[in-house]
Amino acid sequence: MFSMKIAIVSDFHLGTKEGTLREDDSFIQAREAIERALELGAQLILIAGDIFDSRNPSQEVWARGMKILSLASEKENQGITLSDTVGKEKSDITALPLRGTPVVAIHGNHERRGRGFVDSIEALESAGLVIRLHHNTVVFETPDGRVAIHGMGYVPEDYAMDLLNEWNPEPVEGATNIFMIHQGLGRFTFSSSGAARLRPSDFVEGFELYVSGHVHYWVESEVHGKPLIFPGSTVRTQLLPVEAEKAKGFYLVNLQDGDIDYKFVELESVREFYYEEENFEGATSNQVENWIRTKLEELLNKSGPKLDKRPLARFRLTGTLSKGSSRGDIDVSRIEAEFEDKVLLSISREDLSSPELEEKTKLLRDIREEKISMEERGMKILDSNLEDLNYDQRFDSRTLYELLSEDRVDEAFEKVSEKLKELVESNLEEKND
């Protein structure tokens, strides 16, 4: 009877937020994931990319990361041996990763380096901490049967389809086959250019389980009638709404006589994260600030048992402000200082607009579409700004603009000085009368 437990983790992003109050989070949560996986009896650990957050981690990050990965090598091997490889020299794999619980890893987009350069996963393989896969396969023998892991690390999105087809992995006969990738996949991954080009349906058929890293929230789907699972990241990096809804953790997969059972294991060391979005209509800066304070107090009052670690909160403010108010009037720094001992706060104001800003945007758009000279465009903008300042037309703004545009700065300064002198003398005469 074939039975085997495999832990599938991804996206540790070790070293992310280095130099901030969150710099330890990635290490604490990666360590918990490995420790919990081993405690739950994992005989094999798969890492679906982005162990590190940087292509060139600092020595401090390297030291802490290697110590975490060495936890698997310290655990007694449970009868797992390397029986075969495809597209990879068996002699390139040292005996070190097979002495304990073997770890198989692929590189992610944060680790990928150009041809001819050694990436961090290759370095970890040289140190005997992992077995690296990229367009190749390793086959493990267990006392009860065989399992084959097929891996493809991250490649540029434009080439993903071609390189996948070029590799074209074939399931190993007589083994349970797991396909692992780190890539943007269709509707699961979006960027400024839209959905990723590679889709799950582009995967080769015939595998019992499909795994993908890169996506930072855990999700379960299906492809070719088989499970497709995304473990998600073990640390919060993007602070998106879905990361407030979804827990962080890893998958524990149980292979049992051809059947595959899997469950998501939630980590306990993760900071709480609150995401709030509010749409304002004609609000003053004071009203916005009061809403932020009230919402923060409400969230903190309902926080659970994780208050020993300051939670994260991200507020996205949208809509419109009242006339005379601007985004800059919202004193974010003061609010952050008020709550600095209670929460790690991020406030996004970019989607708040004011009537003045909309009018300026429309003015600039209209001016751009008019067929007039650059001088005339500049004059229109100057007139608009003077109007905002309640300019009373006693000063010849066009003359000033023409002098400045011709680089006649001294003459422009003299004109301004004369006008100021006249205004001062006029005010004194009015007071004496």
Automatic annotation (TrEMBL):
Q: Which UniProt keywords apply?
A: Exonuclease, Hydrolase, Nuclease
Q: Which residues form the Mre11 DNA-binding domain?
A: 262-416
Q: From what superkingdom does this record's organism come? A: Archaea
Which InterPro entries does this entry report, sorted A to Z? Calcineurin-like_PHP, DNA_Repair-Maintenance_Comp, Metallo-depent_PP-like, Mre11_DNA-bd, Mre11_N
Q: Does the keyword Oxidoreductase apply?
A: no
| A Pfam family it matches | Metallophos
What is the protein name stated in its UniProt record?
Answer: Mre11 DNA-binding domain-containing protein
